[in-house]
Structures are given as structure tokens and as C-alpha cells.
């Protein structure tokens, strides 16, 4: 039945207007746009929460952002933001509130879920985490044999891994160098084996991080970790000194054998990929200490407040989200590259892949309508900048595809060394410049290039990018940067009319894997008529190979 809930975004007047606008401006180039407006860079740069964001190299005219903002209003973004902060159950397919913003809300404020203020609970867990971290870092929490903890191994996957891994890399400068941090996520035994290489079980603490505490990969790794620790420590009692859990599921934690006194909780209103500042961030707090973890939270909160209160025209996450919609849905880009010019942000693109694609990689609207008339989430990918320049940038500059880029750089290096930082940032600015303005055939010829090489040496330009520049990578800044993308994802979801907080698309593979496990392990050749021929062939071949090698 057609009705407001089931009608497509494409029927909105503001959507049509943007579609026409994209068509009408398709011949305009960034060269034209900059030539026509000498204050374009100032006009299209925005600043908040320590981030200076230059959108002027996006393919937009003076009218584009106001039109996108009108679309956001028409899509109910304002109401959706209010509903999220009010604790409404906006994750409708799982009937849950979405309150990662509560994880960084100061003690003095209130957020109600079903009439109950959740903020005191958040701070209670933060205090327990802080006291635990102080004891480990200070050498008061000892291993079973009385030795100090020197290595922390976080066992978790997806949202219980990517945030902690990213933060561990991003904040290494601030971390306690006497502690070694390792992360195990993959069910591939290699991941565990390599993570514990060189570690002494008597000095190793495992954090089993799992919201549900039922995740196959994490439990398999946690069992192997327990066996590894007990093989050396020889006593079940050792588990209490060498294993802590982060979870919402106390009964499964207890069933696994971890004392719930050593469990740090969180809540069903924290989505996995939005959980790095919940107790899932325990490894982060162990690394940088409670005080710096508070600074990280303060950075998140500052961006939350900006997102909640700033006018859409000046609102960093709203603009970031709307420009991603513009580039992908209206200009047809299939991917967005995230290119940090900071080695500490090496894992930031991987973190963003889950945040963006697990959130908005959807083809069904909130009302259950199949989306067949516009594109939703692009593929996000990236690598630290200068390494990428010697690898895939060729395609971004001269390939046939349009790949909008987010450049991220800092004014100050955390490791000043001679000219390194100027060289690094010169590359960052140069890449955005080259992408935007290219090099014309005439300019190439003027360099005396032989005619046969002119097409090869010409750069088309007009390739959009945003540059995010900040003073220094601090815990606070990282919080604001992550929250910028979290809320940009929220903004995109509102425009595309999808639910950014569920992930049904990961279920089918899990179910089928659970069906195949016994077929790989069974002694007798399993009945495989329920599989297609390809899958049955692969299973048979694997079983045959296993028998030979055993
Ligand atoms: C994230 C997803 C997913 C989840 C993992 C781990 O938003 O829900 O990546 O984080 O599947 O789940 P557990 O924390 O329950 O082990």
C-alpha cells in the first residue's frame, strides 16, 4: 500500500530538486567553481570540537548544501536526532534504544530509558573500570603466581575488537609502554597463536570482550586462552586473576568460568560498533589510564552536543553525512576513501568500514520497503596517506571511477623529527589539490611532453575531497573525530531511510557455518543433499584433504 511511510525518498520534492541540481551542474568543474568564487574555501570550511573541515573541494555549488539541508529536514533528521538523545527505541527492528551518546554523558545530566536515568549506571561502570585499571597499571593487581601483569590480550570480534584495536593504535603515544597490548579476533588459530607469541602466562591478562558472550569466534578463542594459561599456571583458581569479561550477559560469563565480580557490564542500548567508549574500551583505558580515557569521552561528548544543537548549515556530522549522500546517491560514486596522514590512524579506515557499512549497508527502508530507486551506503576503504600514494592513488587520480576522499591530517606531529611532518602534510595538501584541479592537456604540452604521452600525463581533476585538519592527535580529538563519523552515519541513515543500528545481513552466514561445522568434523561422510553442488564439492574435498593430513 502506498502511503507516507512506504513512499520512497525519491518522491520528496527536495530529493527531486537535488537530482535535477546534480544533472544541471554536472559540467561544472572545481576549476570553474574556485575561479568564480574567491572566498569559496572560507565559505565552505567549518570548525567545531577542534576539527577544521574544508569541504570546498567537493563538487558543490553555492546552492548544494542548502538543498541538502532541506532534504535532511524533509527526511526528519531533526526529529530523529531528538528521538535518539531522548532514548526512544529508534532501533525498531530490534526494539532498542540507541544511546551510545549516554556513554559519554557527564554525571550531572540525565538520559531516561523507560523512565530510568541510565547515566548513573554508566558512571558506576566507569569508576569500576578506573579502579581496576589503576590496580593493573600500578602493579597491585597481580597474576596467580604473584607476578605483575605485563601483557593484556583483548579477545573479541567486530564491534568488540575494531574500536579497541583502532584506539590502541591511535593512542599509542599516550599508552603505558610497560604494558604490551595484543588483540585476538579471528577464529583462525593463527591469530591466537601469534598474539600470545612471547607472552608469559603468569604476566598475561585476558579481556574477553563480548556483548552477547555467545559469539562463536570469541568463545573459541577464550577457551583456547584459558587452556593456554592453565597449561602453564596449572590451577583453575588462576582464571580469576588472568581473565576478566566485558559483557551484557552475566549468566554466560559465569557459565564460562569468569567470576562476575571481574565483569564490566554495558547495556543493550549500546550497539557493538558504537561501543568503543563503553566497557569494551577497557583495553584502551588500561593503555592510556582513566584520566585520558575521560578526555576521550569528553571529545565524544563535545561532538554529541555539537551534533544535537548546532544548525544543520554549520553542523559537522550533518554536513559530512549529507556530502556522502550527495557523492554516492546523486553523483554516483560507489566508494569513499578515508586517507589519514598520520601513522597512528592506520586502523581508522578499518574501524570506519564497520561503522559505515554495517550501519548503512541496507536495501530495506525502516518501513520495510525494498530500495530499488537509489543507492545507499558506499564502500568505505583506505590506508594511511603516503603509503597509499605509492599504491592505489593512481586509480583515484586517473582511473575511470569517481572516488571522493576524506583526507585527515594534523598541524603538529606527536613525533617531531626533522622535516618529516612538513613532508607528510605537503603530500596531504598536494594530493587534494591534484585531485581537484588536475593538469590539463595544455599544461602537459607546455612542459614539453611528447604528444604520444600527453593523454597519459593529463590529470582530469574535478575529483572531490574533504580535508579534516586538527591541531594534534589527542585522546579528546580522537573522541570528537570518531563521533563525527558516528553521527555522519546517523545522518546518512536518516536520508536513505534505513536503520543504521541493526545488522541482519550477518546472520545467514553464521547459521550456515553452524550447519557445516559438524559436516566437517563428522567421522562418517555426511548427507549433503541440502547443499548446492559447489558447496558439497568443497566440503568433500576439504574432508578428503583433512583425512590425508591427519
Ligand atoms: C556490531 C555488531 C558485531 C558485534 C560482533 C561481536 O555492531 O553487532 O560486529 O560487535 O558480532 O559481538 P559480541 O560482542 O556479542 O561478541
3D architecture notes:
The chain is 47% helix and 10% strand. The chain is built from 23 helices and 13 strands. The strands form 3 sheets. Strands 1-2-13-12-10-11 form a 6-stranded mixed beta sheet, sandwiched between helices. A 5-stranded parallel beta sheet has the order 6-5-7-8-9, with helices on both faces. A two-stranded antiparallel ribbon has the order 3-4. Helix 15 runs parallel beside helix 21 and helix 22 crosses helix 23. The radius of gyration is 25 Å and the shape is globular. The N and C termini lie far apart (59 Å). The relative contact order is 0.13. The mean pLDDT is 96. Bound molecules: glucose-6-phosphate (G6Q). Glucose-6-phosphate is lined by residues 157-160, 210-212, 215, 218, 271-273, 358, 503.
